[in-house]
């Protein structure tokens, strides 16, 4: 029963002809095997409501035929793997996490609440991973986590080129109101959104 599944067997990477993998509602699943990148024919990976998954293995970017990546309600997901933007044929990506400066680096005495001296250590420019994903359709939810320092970080997502998207949701998890408004202006979504 999927609800009780805590981990996947390492042999999963041997299923090279696998086209679809539905692991939705596997609430106890904490991670995917690192060899998932061997599933080069995989078209669809459904991880909806896998609420304990904190990260996707970096090898997922080797799933070059991946068209549908369902991550809705993967609330523990901390960031997206570097290189995800190379999956340019991706049509469905319903949940995206972009992490700015961590809350552990917040300076309560700073006017913008972010401690700029720690920014280089904690900053992950995840929004740029969206830049080339211009085939996305349907709904995209972006969770912006932490503090951000410039409009250009939001502009890197290139939301104007996402002409096929029907709905865009942006959730700010932290940051000051001023910083979040700055980020919102920088996103510049396509006119149809």
From TrEMBL:
InterPro entries: LRR_dom_sf, LRR_R13L4/SHOC2-like
Sorted UniProt keywords: Repeat
Domain Disease resistance R13L4/SHOC-2-like LRR, residue spans: 12-180
Keyword Coiled coil set for record: no
Pfam families according to UniProt: LRR_14
The keyword Disulfide bond is assigned to this record: no
Name of protein: Disease resistance R13L4/SHOC-2-like LRR domain-containing protein
Native organism: Opuntia streptacantha
């Amino acid at each position: 029963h999927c609800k009780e599944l805590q981990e996947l067997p390492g042999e999963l990477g041997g299923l090279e002809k696998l086209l679809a993998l539905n692991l939705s509602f596997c609430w106890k699943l904490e991670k995917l095997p690192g060899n998932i990148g061997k599933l080069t024919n995989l078209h669809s990976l459904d991880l909806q409501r896998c609420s304990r998954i904190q990260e996707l293995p970096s090898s997922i970017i080797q799933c070059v035929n991946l068209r549908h990546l369902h991550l809705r309600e993967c609330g523990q997901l901390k960031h997206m793997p570097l290189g995800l933007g190379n999956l340019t044929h991706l049509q469905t990506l319903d949940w995206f996490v972009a992490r700015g400066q961590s809350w552990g680096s917040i300076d309560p005495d700073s006017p913008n609440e972010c401690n700029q001296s720690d920014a280089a250590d904690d900053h992950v420019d995840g929004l740029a991973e969206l830049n080339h994903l211009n085939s996305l359709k349907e709904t995209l939810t972006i969770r912006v986590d932490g503090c951000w320092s410039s409009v250009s970080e939001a502009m890197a997502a290139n939301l104007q080129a996402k002409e096929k998207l029907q709905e865009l949701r942006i959730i700010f998890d932290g940051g000051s109101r001023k910083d979040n408004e700055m980020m919102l202006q920088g996103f510049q979504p396509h006119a149809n959104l």
